[in-house]
Design a protein that fits this description.
By secondary structure, the chain is of the alpha/beta class. Helices cover 29% and strands 23% of the residues. The chain has helices at residues 31-38, 70-80, 100-110, 133-139, 143-146, 151-155, 176-181; strands at residues 3-8, 25-26, 29-30, 44-48, 59-61, 87-92, 115-119, 125-132, 160-163. It has a 7-stranded mixed sheet, sandwiched between helices.
Length: 182
């Protein structure tokens, strides 16, 4: 079973004064490096965001038009994959506590289903998950429909497992206070 992943790193970061979240540092490494490390098991990683040097080879791309939201970024990243995997991972760049172990649990929970997503401590789905690539292709909206589409709308008809976080892995960094509190 092949596994490729897409890192969503091209948002506006409004609550962080427009900072480039991918370049923000936490524990001595950029948030992008944390995300790439979490996807250690992926055969291929595409980053939807501005190209920057990385420790692991990845493919960079941008959605068109820019700032189309997570669905447009996910599908743009999927289109940039060189090989079509059976399972696609998706990870927002602002989740530095997600690890390879997280994605192993997600892949295990997705067995026999359309996918699985990590939740936060309150049970809300986060942008860390895996999807069956064939099912993703089957629910894909046209190019115009994906711009601005909320992720929950794209996924609403799928059979998804929710995976509870271990420790802080379900926390994201939406503000400077979030980063400080990690």
């Amino acid at each position: 079973m092949s596994f490729a992943a897409i890192v969503l790193a091209g948002g506006r970061a409004v609550r962080m004064d427009g900072a480039d979240k991918a370049s923000v540092e936490h524990d001595g490494r950029s948030l992008l490096e944390h995300a790439i490390e979490a996807l250690l098991d992926a055969d291929e990683v595409v980053v939807v965001g501005e190209p920057v040097p990385t420790t692991r080879p990845v493919t960079f791309c941008r959605e068109s038009p820019r700032y189309g939201g997570p669905v447009a970024a996910l599908l743009t990243g999927y289109d940039a994959l060189v090989d079509r995997p059976s399972t696609v991972g998706v990870l927002a760049v602002d989740m530095p506590r997600v690890t390879p172990w997280t994605f192993r649990r997600l892949r295990e929970a997705a067995a026999g289903r359309d996918g699985a997503f990590l939740t936060d401590a309150d049970g809300r789905r986060q942008l860390a998950g895996v999807l069956d690539a064939a099912r993703l292709a089957g629910i894909r909206p046209d190019h115009e429909g994906q711009h601005g589409m909320p992720m929950h709308r794209l996924l609403e008809g799928l059979d998804l497992a929710d995976v509870a976080p271990e420790g802080d892995e379900g926390r994201d960094v939406d503000s400077w206070a979030d980063l400080r509190d990690l």
